[in-house]
Amino acid sequence: MPPIVTGIIASLLLLANILFWAVFLFSFTLLKIIIPVESVRKVITGILNLIANAWISCNSGWMILTQKMNWSIERPDSLDRNGWYFVLSNHQSWVDILVLQHTFNGRIPLLKFFLKQELIKVPIMGAAWWALDFPFMKRYSKEYLAKHPEMKGKDLETTRQACEKFKDMPTSVMNFLEGTRYTPEKHAQQQSPFRHLLKPKAGGMAFAMSAMGDQFRSVLDVTIDYPEGIPTFWDFMQGKMTRCNVVVKEKTIPEELRGGDYETDEQYRLNFQQWVQQLWEEKDETLETLRQR
What we know:
Elements: H1 3-34, H2 38-66, E1 70-74, E2 85-89, H3 95-104, E3 111-113, E4 115-116, H4 125-131, E5 136-137, H5 142-147, H6 154-164, E6 172-176, H7 184-190, H8 203-212, E7 218-225, H9 233-237, E8 243-251, H10 266-291
Parallel strand pairs: 1-8, 2-6, 2-7, 3-6, 4-5
Antiparallel strand pairs: 7-8
Helix pairs in contact: 1-2, 1-4, 6-8
């Protein structure tokens, strides 16, 4: 089929999938809101996660139907659906989200992405993310905090409150440490020391470790490579992306980094940044190896 036809069919299937599962998701979310019993709410939260997993499985289904994709996915055999993981990845395109969900669905608990506060306004999906307890982050710049010192520490508190919801149910907390999608222009502007990556921002990950570091089984370090070039979402929908490489490495979390005050403890902050720097150096090497195949 011509790419435009493939894109239209894939878009219709994506939309139909969203509308179908949103009905079930929002129905149970309403029950969760109106029933004040905590034990019942926990059961409903489990049901909501099952609905989300089914939603993602159907996404994989229409992707298989419409995309001639040659997947190369390397992941550990030890992944556990009942474990707690912190998942991190390089970020190049909105396609990354579908790739990550396809890679992990049914193998680890539902991925809960750190999202910018503004994304809650996205029609249907914003409400779905909220219903599934995705952590919405409102980060403040140094300039803003200088003018409003009373807001210092509020972003950390927001992260802790979001992560509190994950303590009773296995969860995979997902974060793009670069904070934005990679482009050659951003890479040059940052004067990034990495060949294929932007500089990582350790703060969000450190805040999550501070809130629930003792519960995380490990870090799942994901490297995504698009051999044919970084696709736009519409390129992907049209079936123009035919190859995708994904490498997942399970990393042990150093005990001294499982809890600490990233905001006020300078030594902890330095140690955490050095650890993330090492992870990023290894990821850069992985991407270099993938691109030389």
